[in-house]
Write a structure and sequence with these properties.
With about 200 residues, this protein is of the alpha+beta class. The chain has three helices and six strands, in the order H-H-E-E-H-E-E-E-E. It has helices at about 35-55, 60, 100-110, and strands at about 65-75, 85-95, 120-135, 140-150, 160-170, 175-185.
Amino acid sequence: MSDSTPPPVGRLSALSVLGRNAPRHQRTGRPLPFADERHAQAHQWLVDEAYLLDAQEYEEWLELLTEDIHYLMPVRVTTALGSGYDTSPGMAHFDEDKYSLSRRVARFLTEHAWTEDPPSRMRHYVTNVRTFATADPDHLVAESAVLLFRSRGDVNESALVSAGREDLLRRGPDGWLLARRTILTDESVLRMQNLAVFL
């Protein structure tokens, strides 16, 4: 891959310090059929996760993450066709591992989480789910589109964030776990007062 070729979504985490130890499994072949049991399981997992995020059950959400997770949301940039990149190197809205995600969640439980007190009203709409096998049968790549509606207070205008996600799911003893998430927003400028929530 030349320097001018953008890295596949799943490899963006390799460029991050926190992502250097993240799992590297990549998709192989064509998308799995909708009738495939693995696709159904991944789709169910994404829907169940969305309900946890809407309800802000963040401690329970953390239990769905692997210990070596990398959660990445690069800053999008607008560039000329053929430039070879559309994210800003070294810049991210989220660049997290399990520890930093747990610290974010812990802060929600304190009196210092003023950005979410009172809490936002949120709805995660998850669609366009495609799943892919990897070389390891215990890992699955799930691609989805997510639309986040967020309303906070009685005065501020509601906000929307549209994004594509590529997730790496790992089979655990009690079901699938999230081992890597890369989020690519559809706007270069986010129209929210803050991003104290998860996508």
